[in-house]
Amino acid sequence: MSNKKVVLITGIGGQDGSLLAELLLERGYDVHGIIRRASNFNTQRIDHIFNKITLHYGDLTDMGNITSIIANVKPDEIYNLAAMSHVRVSFEMENYTFQTNTMGILNILQAVRTLGLSEKTKIYQASTSEMYGNTTDGSKMLTERSEMNPVSPYGISKLAAHHICNYYRDAYNMFVVSSVLLNHEGERRGLTFVTQKIAQYVGKYSHGKIGKPLQLGNLNAKRDWGYAKDYVWGIYLMMQYDKPDNYLLATGEEHSVREFVELAFNEIGISIEWRGSGEDERGYNKLTGDLLVEVNPKYYRPIDIEHLIGDASKAHKVLGWHPKTSFKTLVHLMVANAITN
Ligand code: NAP
Ligand code: G4F
After folding, report:
1. 3-class secondary-structure state, position 276
2. Is the CB of 87 under 6 A from ligand 2?
3. For residue 8, what is the DSSP state?
4. What is the pLDDT of residues 75-92, one digit of tens each?
């Protein structure tokens, strides 16, 4: 029998799941992951490690399927990274968002408990700053203890999941960690999240692929944007600590969508000049006057969160976790990747 620790990662094909799979392979784990059946290949982010991991077809909403995977794999650690993770889409897919994000973790917890694995299997849940809602104007740093008033189906589904995790840890004495992650991005970020959308546009523009101007929604929104690799390291540390607890990971800085646009175009030597306001705001190349960015209300949300900024002191103190990548470096890495790929 192998001494390797066995891990099961849901959402292994996603941004964080693929980064975590690499990290755990490096640390000698036997890595298993759950992917969904799709009519096209959906393993681009894990193709380079395909032969080193074991994949299982599954869906968080399918209790029988999840239970049988856990029964077969008998993992030492489960990282639940699968989610309907797009906030705007959650307004259009409310029911499915709850089925995946809330019932999904409940299915995992119930499976572990009923299979008699409660003492063996540690469980990680990816919670989110969307759980806070509009509770700060940016002058107050969010912590693990801040008030939570989510304003999106996504945020509500994740807050319910967070409470389910707390309840399982307290009621059944299980090793369950639920951590609040502020936005984290990188080269593998999904194409419809704002940072990657901007980086990809700038990458194409640098190659002369000039179509219509970049279409964006709320330019004023501010986020605490970190680098996904740093966050995945923090997630790993939480699961290695001797007792389960909830931690918040953040950089402690917030920047607006508008600032992200400016820095991203700066990477290819373009300065942006903004003219107009609200739906009529536009971003021009300061030197040539070319129109580069337009506001398109199609990308507005029924309710948006204007500020998200977090204080990760607890993770610093207890786990020794610090984000290593600055905002400027993050933008640089994403644009450089978009230019080369
Ligand atoms: P992501 O790139 O969107 O990856 C999510 C993964 O979940 C994808 O592989 C997706 O599969 C899979 N998935 C979706 N629905 C599923 C279902 N019903 N059953 C099984 N798998 C399903 O997300 P991420 O950015 O890596 O985020 C990882 C986790 O952290 C998520 O839970 C997210 O909500 C949470 N989080 C992320 C951030 C952030 O800024 N990135 C911040 C806070 C919390 P397909 O590839 O087939 O779509
Ligand atoms: O990139 P976003 O879609 O990320 P959002 O909504 O903050 O959610 C991400 O972070 C959460 C943590 O806080 C995660 F839990 C969640 O899974 C996801 O990873 O939007 C960021 C901001 C929003 O205010 C949005 O209104 O950018 C604004 N925005 C402006 N124009 C846009 C666009 N967002 C998107 N996706 N597309 C736009 O064109």
Report:
1. coil
2. yes
3. E
4. 999 999 999 999 999 999
- Residue 138 is classified by DSSP as S
Q: Whole-prediction pTM value?
A: 0.98
The model's pLDDT over 101-126, given as tens digits with 9 standing for 90+, comes to 999 999 999 999 999 999 999 999 99
Ligand 1 atom with minimal separation from the 188 CA: 2
Of 67, 87, 83, which Cα lies nearest the Cα of 75?
Answer: 67
Q: Are 43 and 35 in contact (CB under 8 A)?
A: yes
What is the 194 CA–ligand 2 centroid distance (Å)? 6
In DSSP notation, 12-37 reads: TTSHHHHHHHHHHHHTT-EEEEEE--
Q: Name which of 226, 229, 228, 205 is nearest 285 in CA terms.
A: 205
Best CA proximity match to 133, nearest among 117, 114, 146, 144: 146
Atom of ligand 1 nearest to the CA of 85: 34
User: How high is the pLDDT of residue 210?
Assistant: 83
- Ligand 1 binding pocket includes 42 (Cβ within 6 Å): yes
**How far is Cα 262 from Cα 312, in angstroms, rounded to an integer?**
27
**pLDDT, tens only, 288-299:** 999 999 999 999
Closest Cα to atom 31 of ligand 2:
217
- Interval 154-209: pLDDT, tens: 999 999 999 999 999 999 999 999 999 999 999 999 999 999 999 999 999 999 98
Of the candidates 226, 181, 234, the residue with the CA atom closest to the CA atom of residue 334? 226
